[in-house]
Write a structure and sequence with these properties.
It contains twelve helices and 15 strands. Helix content is about 50%, strand content about 15%. It has about 425 residues and is of the alpha/beta class. A hairpin with a 5-residue loop joins strand 10 and strand 11.
Length: about 425
């Protein structure tokens, strides 16, 4: 259960940090795509490193090295209700989702490979494109594909640019703008970033804020490349026309590669190109510092309100008023009580008597858990019973009475039966 609680806390921590990363640039009017892109990437990395950069809150635990659990159903109706462990169900759903997302990733990579195999290489590139390759010092292979309507760039060590048939019949300015865009992606190795982001999205498929953060990172990446292309071609107007002309064609959004144009990003990209806005170095520094401070505050609040938990060092429980009266065969000062962590084997439960609901607790529909500490004697009996977490005096008493009748196979050390400490959790539930 603690593992699921930590997963939920981590989900909320990442949600708070991602929300801060998405809101702060807008609130502070941070407009530089390069700066916003670097900031958002830093937020994403911090989201992934949160478990490592925060102190984990210690939760006290008892010294018992083995635990026994049982569920007691109070009969409030004739038909018993089967118990469902929703923690296991939730973790199974998360795991299935991750597996399906990785299968989707594998299909995307396979589709790119099949497109590449069916494509036809361009033996002689137009002169403008070869000039761009020389200027940017990259030389990916260009292929014409019948399977796509817009350019697709992928590959890290042997990059490939797939272009539609219309590429060869475009006017020179539009063709150069399109090729320049893809060549900048190759030079920046953006495909590696795209794949890494898809891996993160697959692991966190259930996390919308993180998906929105990655989407914003991709928008700013395209805005950076837009600025580079507009500066290289010398005409923002012609480049905007090329974007709009490609936007009229159907574009596949499921390809695992940077896209020349995604329609839901187009308006924002064009608006930034036409604004040609800039920020002074002083203002940019102040704004970025404010964004960093806001991020630190978000991390502190996330860790404070949703801490990750880990068990503290075992401590012997204090004397309880509910401690069972020592029987004649109870432990003596000379008889040591072992823990499993000290090399003793764990006792095994052979026979148990279920505690019963009291009528008063049933009428009040009381539910919850009684936690008890016991010592399993060398004879396999529960002795020195202590209530560590009380639920109701009547239910506590019934739990103690039942435990006295439990039979165990005693724990051993060096092949000899020894006294071993253990905890017992008895869950009382109304069916």
């Amino acid at each position: 259960m603690a593992g699921f609680d930590n997963l939920l806390s981590y989900f909320l921590q990442v949600a708070m940090l991602a929300a801060a990363g998405l809101l702060l640039p807008r609130l502070l009017r941070l407009r530089s795509p390069r700066t916003v892109h670097g900031y958002l990437q830093s937020v994403l990395v911090l989201c992934l490193l949160l478990p490592l950069v925060q102190p984990w809150k210690e939760v006290a635990q008892t010294a018992a090295g083995v635990s026994f659990r049982t569920v007691i159903q109070g009969r409030a109706s004739a038909a018993p209700v089967p118990h469902v462990d929703w923690t296991v169900v939730a973790l199974a759903v998360l795991a299935v989702g991750v597996i399906l997302r990785f299968c989707w990733l594998a299909v995307g990579l396979w589709r790119l490979r099949s497109y590449r195999r069916r494509a036809h290489p361009i033996e002689e590139l137009p002169q403008g494109v070869t000039g761009l390759q020389a200027d940017l010092k990259v030389s990916p292979q260009f292929f014409v594909s019948d399977d796509i309507s817009g350019p697709v760039t992928f590959g890290l060590f042997r990059p490939v640019v797939l272009v539609p048939k219309a590429f060869l019949t475009m006017d020179t300015e539009s063709r150069n703008a399109l090729a320049c865009h893809e060549l900048w992606h190759v030079r920046r190795r953006d495909w590696a970033h795209t794949v890494a982001e898809e891996v993160v999205r697959s692991l966190f498929w259930f996390h919308p804020p993180l998906a929105w953060l990655i989407d914003r990172i991709r928008v700013t990446r395209e805005q950076i490349v837009d600025g580079l292309v507009a500066g290289r071609t010398g005409s923002r107007r012609l480049y905007v026309q090329a974007l709009l002309s490609m936007a009229s064609l159907p574009v596949r959004a499921d390809l695992l590669a940077p896209s020349f144009v995604r329609k839901h990003h187009l308006k924002e990209r064009v608006a930034l190109l036409l604004k040609e806005s800039s920020m002074s170095k002083r203002r940019l520094t102040i704004t970025l510092a404010a964004a960093g401070l806001g991020t630190v505050i978000a991390v502190i609040l996330a860790v404070w309100y949703f801490p990750l938990l880990r068990p503290a060092a075992p401590q012997e429980p204090a004397h309880s008023a509910n401690q069972d009266v020592a029987a004649p065969n109870a432990s003596t000062p000379q008889e040591r009580v072992y823990r499993v962590s000290e090399g003793a084997s764990a006792p095994k439960l052979l026979h148990k008597i279920e505690p019963t609901y009291t009528q008063d607790a049933r009428n009040r529909k009381m539910q919850g858990t009684v936690v008890l500490r016991i010592e399993v004697s060398p004879k396999g009996e529960a002795e020195n019973i202590q209530v560590l977490r009380s639920l109701d005096p009547g239910l506590d008493a019934n739990a103690i009475a039942a435990l006295k009748q439990w039979k165990f196979q005693a724990g051993t050390k060096d092949n000899k039966p020894v006294r071993v400490a253990a905890t017992v959790e008895i869950n009382f539930r109304i069916s």
